């Protein structure tokens, strides 16, 4: 029986424990019964007491406000430690309480109060009344913050971006709240602005492409192209930070709240007078403002710029970068070639202000004029020679020499040699000048054979004896008489019977101006003489031999 009573007693005891003892890991109510050595001793009921550091009752940077008799909520971590005390935490109770509150605020998208109290990698820690949250550096302010010192410890609102209770993670933003209030402020300012309105603003920031102007709580962008009618390379040429400027509202984007501003719109447009001021073909002074691969921009007056295309820059420098012809800020004379008012474009010419050098050359160097120049280039079809006016003339292979083939003659010329030549043709349209070196001193062949016709008898001099015939010279022109043309008589067709220096009468059988050769023959002269004698003194049919006839003829002559 006693055993049964014992078992019943244990069961009852166990039941009372389960009933009376609160669950570990939950928040319980307790009463402060004493404060000693920086700790509060708290009775949590169920004959359990625990200790909590006073600092757990304080907000960051503040003193703890707690007194004996105060009722507090604490977190029961464990019912008994080695000293037989309950292990309790006020901080954890606050955290649990805070998490419940924060989860509700997060669900309702409400703001939460908190204070930044520490700095960690990539941002800051924020106390949200018991729960610690992370504030990323990018979420502190609308613009990057260099010094967050003044924000430390201040009670202020935050927006919860992310929560994960299981991992204990909370991410908050201060920036989202600032943006919201800024958006309200912007909406109000923008509501008072209209497109076309002139307003005063303060230059806040200057970039490569323009400036941001504060119009009283809202920024507008003043693009570099809207600052002045003239070309502005960098906004800092015109504006300084902090300066007050008058601007016109060009465009307001209602959705993005972006405002575009302009300064030049408040000044007169110089393009209204361009057509009257710059008639076609008129020449004006201008200043080079910008150089590109395709040409140079020249400012005729502030706000009016024209383009000198690379093809209109120089008569002679064809494939050269514009930067080799003009330099930025240089003053130049330009001619107006075309005006397009709609596109606000002026086409200018630089070369048109100087005379075409080919025209000048054609006037000063008619055909037949002798010129001197340096060999600039040697190509497979001839020589290029530098001429006055920075232009080139070309000597074709066929115009190098009367006697040699062009390919051989060109071998004796080198770059930078100074040579003489004769102008043979100038084509101004095609910008071509043809020169001839072989025509210097006239055409010797034409001069030598001027009075000579086919069938003429001429006297020449033997200059060389060869196996195949003899070389002779007539008026300085070389010619060759083949073995078969040396005599009518085959036995006499021997080159060795002649000597260098012999004078011979020969008949001209051919004049070839192309190859510049005379065809000469002794045999043809003999045949012609025989025909003549026969015609004069009777037919060979009468029985008299040629020797007799010639003999008689010679006697008669004597």
UniProtKB/TrEMBL annotation:
Pfam families attached to this UniProt entry: S1
Entry keywords, A to Z: Repeat, Ribonucleoprotein, Ribosomal protein, RNA-binding
Residue ranges of every copy of the S1 motif domain listed in the record: 25-91, 109-175, 196-264, 281-351, 368-438, 455-523
InterPro entries attached to this UniProt entry: NA-bd_OB-fold, Ribos_protein_bS1-like, Ribosomal_bS1, Ribosomal_protein_S1-like, S1_domain
Cellular component terms (Gene Ontology): ribosome
Function field: Binds mRNA; thus facilitating recognition of the initiation point. It is needed to translate mRNA with a short Shine-Dalgarno (SD) purine-rich sequence.
Similarity remark: Belongs to the bacterial ribosomal protein bS1 family.
Name of this chain's protein: 30S ribosomal protein S1
Originating species: Shimia sagamensis
